Amino acid sequence: MNAAHAGRAFRAILWRELLRFVQQRERFFAALVRPLVWLLVFAAGFRATLGLSIIPPYETYITYDVYVVPGLIGLIQLFNGMQNSLSMVYDREMGSMRVLLATPLPRGYLLVARMLSGTAVSIIQVYAFLAIAALCGTEMPPSGLLPLLPVLVLTGLTLSALGMFLSSRIRQLENFAGVMNFLIFPMFFMSSALYPLWRVREGSVTLYELCRFNPFTYIVELVRSTLYLQFNATALAVVAGTLVVFGALALIGYTPARGGPAAGRAGGGG
Amino acid sequence: MDAAENRSEPREEAAAGAAPTLQVRDLSYSYGKAKALDGVSLSARAGRVTALLGPNGAGKTTLFSLITGLFDSRRGEIVIAGHPIRRARSKALAAMGIVFQAQTLDIDLTVDQNLRYFAALRGLPGRHARDRIAALLAEIGLADKAKAKVRTLSGGQRRRVEVARALLDRPALLLLDEPSTGLDIATRRWLTTHIHSLARDHGMAVLMATHLVDEVLAEDDLIVLDKGSVVASGPVGEVVLRSGAADLDAAFTRLTAGKPEAKP
Predict the structure, then answer these.
(1) CA dihedral (B189, B136, A94, B148) positive or negative
(2) What is the model's pTM?
(3) Which tens digits make up the pLDDT trace of B71-92?
(4) Residues of A in contact with B65 (CB under 8 A)
(5) Would the CA dihedral through A242, A248, A253, A254 be positive or negative?
């Protein structure tokens, strides 16, 4: 693989994703409004009713809106991963995916480039959300924002890989809504995004166990600890492992010899 | 591997009587238990248009998906400009321009953005891509549409852009999968004339799948595909002669067991 060719192709894939993102203003606003509603409406209500004890990585008592920010960062990236998945199914139906996959570069490279491009879009959304949240009075340590960047690349890639794997299994655009409902909401609610796990355990041990086996919990906890400049080895290992598993499944899903027809369906009658 | 390095020289190949630009040997493919292609062998030579004629469901699009690497089969071999697609996928794809049957442009981008995106995917340097895009748009008569969103173009204009896109890095082999589907008569005529000129004047090997007999010219090579198998191949005149029919229309009907496609 020629490095110059690979670089040009990556820039082109990234440019196309960013251009589509800029052109679809509704998508940008939806990506921001969703977590902001949680932060400014939901969290405002819970702030008065939910007490949070001092739990790592926090070193003092915090308000609920502060607690929920890492979960909402995860939510942004989760929705973006699913948006990517939807976009790939759409591209497949519209034929653009065939053009990409018939490019003279290794297929794995093209798919990783596509995942990274989607991740870049999600990172823009995350920082825009954090800026608005700060303006609205939610306290965050500014020193954690820069170290957060590589973590967002990792978590974004993990959720993009999940989205890409799903797109390789979804045969029709119409099936997508069902997958979204059965995946996004359970992943989000059965995690530490909205409540600390010790609180969940007080309510239901079964739910607590489910949350512990949910990779999204570790995505949220990795973001949370990084934002407060703490290293969470367990969360990092689980997120990296999840990326490897979903990444491998996505690549297998788009391999022509193993179910690849979903990736590059002939689409013709000849 | 840079796209430019991969390009073969079709004119020299034709002059030297070298191996065909595309060689397909004993290729088979199944969707589950349903066999779509069964021991297909064919070739496309530089400087010639090879028409792949077959009724709907004959396996043409499956064959194209295998040649373009979208599908993979362990049964048989595909060699493009000397590169086996299974062992040297990138080099094989770099030698090939493709016009898919379905429309594959991004309708939310402009014509120029679509072409620049594709040029970058093919590894063309920016300045070279810009010059090439300008030349190709002029050649297809759409220079004034460079900044137009694809969604505003007619079906015929979109098809022209797709042909230009396939030619961006001067491929040795041009594949067209039923390119006239849904086009008006004027665009179909332009397409037929243009691809024959590409073969004749630029020495390109062209493989065009079609189910329309009137898109095949007397000077073309012909492969008739039916139910996943090649039932006849050779220059058009020879195929007609061997079939014992009076013309290609009748020969096609006879070779495909009386299942001609309706003319548009």
Answers:
(1) negative
(2) 0.83
(3) 888 899 999 999 999 999 999 9
(4) 264, 266
(5) positive
